[in-house]
Amino acid sequence: MAALDPSPDTALIVAVVLPPGLEQLRLLHVPDAASEGIPPHVTLLYPFARPGQLDDGVHLRIASIVASHAAWNMTLAGLGRWPDTLYATVQPDAPVRALQSELAAAFPDLPLYGRTDLRFEPHVTVAEGPGARDPSVATAAAWWELPVVLEVGSVELIVRERGRWRVARSFPLASSGADRL
């Protein structure tokens, strides 16, 4: 397969549903959440490939990797912080780390955030930039909506077209062992 070119208009994500208060904070303090409709998510690979390169071969490679991982329950557990970001922490993080690692190995031309020196840290961004530095955002009552448990059953390929993000394709994870009993 030919090398893929990174594009800021595509991403592989695990979409999540935030509690209402945290979603309101995210819409206020993540610039592309309200203006471009990017859903709350855990980023697996961004930037991903140019939209014109997302052919059957790329889809098949993603589908094969994703289907080899079992669905799981993920807890958005609490507030995490980097200097310029406030985020919901993810537990357990092993399933999402394994999935991201395998996808990254399958697409070496598309390193996470375009950098090879970053360590993957599963998270859901709630505020960035000025919002992350505002003490009232970190102490907002919305954080008390956590923890919340979510079922993770798929990976989404999202694409930005005409300034708006949309799910272009959903790739299902394998059923969990509990589902097979």
What does the model show?
It is a single chain. With 181 residues, this protein is α+β, with helices and mostly antiparallel strands. It has a single domain, classed as Cyclic Phosphodiesterase, Chain: A. Helices cover 27% and strands 34% of the residues. The strands form 3 sheets. It has a 4-stranded antiparallel sheet. Strand 5 (72-82) and strand 6 form a beta hairpin. Helix 3 runs antiparallel to helix 4 (94-106). It is globular. It starts with 5 loop residues before the first strand and ends in a 9-residue tail after the last strand. The mean pLDDT is 94.
Which key terms come to mind for this protein?
27% helix, 181 residues, four-stranded antiparallel β-sheet, Cyclic Phosphodiesterase, Chain: A, alpha+beta, 6 helices, 34% strand, single chain
Task: Count up the helices.
Answer: 6
**CATH fold node name:** Cyclic Phosphodiesterase, Chain: A
**Distance N to C terminus:** 39 Å
What assembly state would you assign to the polypeptide chains in this entry? single chain
According to DSSP, the number of beta strands is 10
Radius of gyration, in angstroms, nearest whole number: 16 Å
Q: What's the average pLDDT?
A: 94
